[in-house]
Amino acid sequence: MSRCVIISACPVSASLASALRPGDTIIACDAGYRNCGPLHCRPDIIVGDFDTAPCPAQEGDDTIILPHVKDDTDTEYAAKLASEKGFDEALLLGVLGGRRLEHTLANLCTGLGLEQRGVRATLLDERSRITFVMPGETRRYPKDGYFYLSVFPMEGRAEGVSERGSFYELTDAVLTAGYPLGVSNEFAAPEAEISLTQGILMIAQTKK
Q: Model-level pTM?
């Protein structure tokens, strides 16, 4: 599978460098190019309106300067670019946390949009990993050092939700946005399995 790594501007630590693979295409978003230093990588493409950082010196065909007035965030533009270039998978770094909560929420929407366009999306920081389960899909989640396993309906309602290998298991359950039933579950086995029939789930794995 071909994979791109989208790097945005939330602070990252060098520990996340281990998530990178040889052959990844690196897309840095605006001030996200500064995160390439601690991640020990070099961007292949830089996109942004550069309202939070000056345009980097390596201007050219690999730098896309966006207008300040636009509908897409810089990260959303990078995600759409990844879809257009035919990547099968996208890892998003520097997209969780930071000073502006609304950017984290927007980046969760961007991850969902990637999934809806057929690109497997993972949002990662030092303590959490965010992924998605699409309707009719079953995904398996190795524990991999994570302790908590939380499940949220991304479209307001998810039906036929089943969880196996977790402390609180579910069978053909309904989850709604108005009641966080799926929060703070825990791994009870080396691997958990999550599926649903309708709706979309966001899965948050978090370290203790």
A: 0.93
